[in-house]
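User: What would this chain look like folded?
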Amino acid sequence: MQENLGLKHNPWLLKTPPLSSEYQMYLDEKDGQKVIVCVVGSTTLLYAFEAIEDLHQMLKASGDWVELGSADEQKPAKEGTVEAWARDESNPRGGWYGLKKGLRGRFGMYMPPLLEALGLAEVEHSPKNNRMRAL
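Assistant: Here's the prediction, encoded as structure tokens.
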């Protein structure tokens, strides 16, 4: 593994699950809190650092494939998906893992490839309706 991979000067270079778009992610700190920074073109999204371990634990507990179900913050998330879990008040965070109001969604699009890159999950790469499971 590359040294310092996942830091601002050496981000993870990832592709969305359908392999249609590239983006970058790295770990940083904002307001004294560890965050995951996701840079998609000119848009920057922020996710809680705990999302990595919490999502992995949720996938392990499910014991099977979980649909990603990515959706913008303003749209409802399909029930039973990674996206719905990342917004649900019953998750370990008690709600949204997305930290930037207005851009808190799309968790199901951008977080799964990071877990795959970290060797924590397997992600499908079909044009639509992708799923993931814990490794």
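Residues 12-130 form one domain. If you want, I can go into more detail on any region.
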